Amino acid sequence: MYTVRMQTIVGVLRGGPSREHEVSLASGHSILSNLSPERYTARDIFIDKQGTWHVAGRPVEPHRALRQVDVVLNALHGEYGEDGEVQKVLERNGVPYTGADSFASYLAAHKALAKERAREVGLKTPRYTLIEARTGDDRHIVESVRSFSQPMVVKPLRWGSSIGVSVVTGYAKLYEAVVDLLARGAGGVLVEEYIRGREATVGVVENLRGEELYTPPPVEIVPPEKEEFFSYSAKYSGGAREVCPAPFTRAISNELMQAARTVHTALGARHYSRSDFIVAPNGVYYLETNTSPGLTNESILPKSLAAAGISLPYFFEHLVNLARAR
Predict the structure, then answer these.
(1) What span, in angstroms and rounded, lies between the C-alpha atoms of 274 and 60?
(2) Is residue 73 part of a domain?
(3) What's the pLDDT at 4?
(4) For strand 166-168 and strand 211-214, is the pairing parallel, antiparallel, or unpaired?
(5) Dihedral sign computed on CA atoms, order 204, 206, 211, 213
(6) Residues 47 and 12 in one domain
(7) CB-based contact 286:277 (threshold 8 Å)
(8) More confident: 191 or 260
(9) Are 20 and 78 in contact, with CB atoms under 8 Å apart?
(10) Which of 30, 163, 181, 318 has a beta carbon 3.0–4.6 Å from 296's, enabling a disulfide?
(11) Number of folded domains in the chain?
(12) Could you list the residue range(s) of the whole structural domain that residue 22 is in?
């Protein structure tokens, strides 16, 4: 008599209508390549740039695609996939999925709200002003120049992967950067004080290695010499160096890991996250949290996990188990 072993059907969401479409395709491919075929049946759910869902190359309504899976591994990045929108779809259909729920996803993706939450729990974060729309005289942009020393950081309110982020000096450059982002549909622009220091990022994974909030070693991001920060081009051109474990003192490393755990909890993140910081002479500054970070071998969180001896297949299996346990 033969025993039929039922496999868990894992839907892998990738693509999406965001500016990080190609990055998401790579993360999804990584998941599909690293899920154990002995334990899981992987189902590729591709979402095109117009937001249409596809299974096996055919357009399909989301509820029909989700009816065929036991759990979803979300590899979407940026708008729709990381800001709570696709999470609402998954919740309406009652499908367990990896990553933060719809509210926590929205909160983390909204950089101003995330900063305020971080401040409430005692973390330092750069001073900022939020510009949500242009007015007739644009005085709010002028005031942004007056309130901060030069240079300033300009970033879209909700986009990820450092898309649209720039470091500018003076009113003319600030005005140009703000107007450009609003015209491109940013929905809001942060003008932030520029903190000089070393860039660091720290991952958090829940219930791993016997720890409720496990933090792999911090990673230091060393931008190319000609760039002042870890830009989108530096992230994906190979120009930046990602040093793991980061060569910080033990005290700084511990402070970074504690800050990552603190903000993960404060934002209500779930399963895993990755938070970015600046290590300045006067302390550690929180920048933002990514609730759906890249998941390729070259991505930062998998690199830090690998430094701790945790492979991608093991990590993905752990995420599936976390999602199904909720």
Answers:
(1) 32
(2) yes
(3) 40
(4) unpaired
(5) positive
(6) yes
(7) yes
(8) 260
(9) yes
(10) 30
(11) 3
(12) 8-98
Q: Span 117-128, mean pLDDT?
A: 96
The two tokens of residue 212 are 């409720």
Kindly state the helix (H) or strand (E) to which residue 47 belongs, with its residue range. strand 40-47
pTM of the model: 0.89
318, part of any domain: no
Question: CA nearest 304: which of 199, 203, 200, 198?
Answer: 203
**Residue 111 belongs to what H/E stretch?**
helix 111-120
Reply yes or no on whether the pLDDT at 182 is more than 50: yes
What CATH number has the domain bearing residue 78? Answer: 3.40.50.20
Other C-beta atoms lying within 10 Å of the C-beta of residue 151: 17
User: Using 50, 70 and 90 to split pLDDT, how confident is the model at 114?
Assistant: very high
Regarding whether 167 and 79 lie in a shared domain, the answer is no
- Is a pLDDT exceeding 80 seen at residue 313? yes
**Residue 61 pLDDT:** 97
- For residues 175 and 208, state if they share a domain: no
Average pLDDT over every residue of 157-171: 81
CATH number assigned to the domain comprising residue 159: 3.30.1490.20
In which element (H, E) is residue 305 found? Answer: helix 300-307
